[in-house]
Structure formats: structure tokens, C-alpha cells
Sequence to fold (166 residues):
Amino acid sequence: MANLLFLCTGNAARSVMATVMLRSLCPEHHIRGAGTFSISGLPMSQRTRVALASYNLSDPNHRSHQLDDDDCEWADLIIIFEKEHRDYIERHHPDSMAIVGSLPRLARELDNSDQSLSLRIAKLNLDKSAFDPWEEITDPAGGDQEIFDLCAKEISALLNQLALRF
Fold:
């Protein structure tokens, strides 16, 4: 069992979608989310709720959470969606950089060998990798429902690939 943490900006859309979706794909793992600039205690956005419902998924108990030291110590892997998330961790939690990777990079590059997850993550040298433009999953905040649905579709496809690697 791995401790997997999804990190987005407000912990109201991307990290929520990813957390709920991966919990359904990999119930054996401990999965939670946080934000870099989150107001703790808020429910997910209504558009996130609708996007998840299209996958027959929900999390009525979700409340936003600001990333803290305990999250970083708990996590075996911190999965991000944009360069600013990596920059935030580098500034506030630099000791965690070796376990921070984007969802697209991990879905593409994490091997699925029989080695432990920590060894497979270490082989990626995530703390030495630059964040490339192809790794960004655009924040749907401020967009209409179609934008949220497209974001959910992108995240779902990547999680289906990543789940095969755990």
C-alpha cells in the first residue's frame, strides 16, 4: 500500500477529481489531496461534483485542505498538475522534491516492475527533472462545465495508465 497525495492549487477541482478517481481504481492505496493556496474546509466546486458524477463517482465528505508538513512526511508520492505546484514545494517543502512528479510524467515514465514503489520513484530522479510544458494539466477554475468535463476526461485517461503502474 502506498500513500499518494494529489496536489493542485485550491484542492477544489484537479486534485479532487484525481483523488476520487484513483480511489476507485486502486482502493488498496491511501489517497488524499491538498492545495498550495487552499482555504481549508471548503467543499469541492459544483462543476467538479458534476464532472465526477459523469463517472458515477462522488465524495460528499470532501473538504479542501492546505498542504502542510505532515502531508509531505506522510506521502510516498506527491502528484502535481502544473509547474507552480512543483515551485511551491521547492520553496516550502524542499526535502520532498524527490517524490514530486506530474501526473502525465508518472503515467508515462513510472515503470511497473516488481521493485518497490520508492525504488521506482527514485529511478525517475524527479528532483532533478525540469517541468516540461507537456506535463501541465490546465486548471479548469473559472471555466464552464465543459472545461471541467474535459479536465476530468484528461485526468481519468492518465490515471488509467498510472493505475497499471502500481
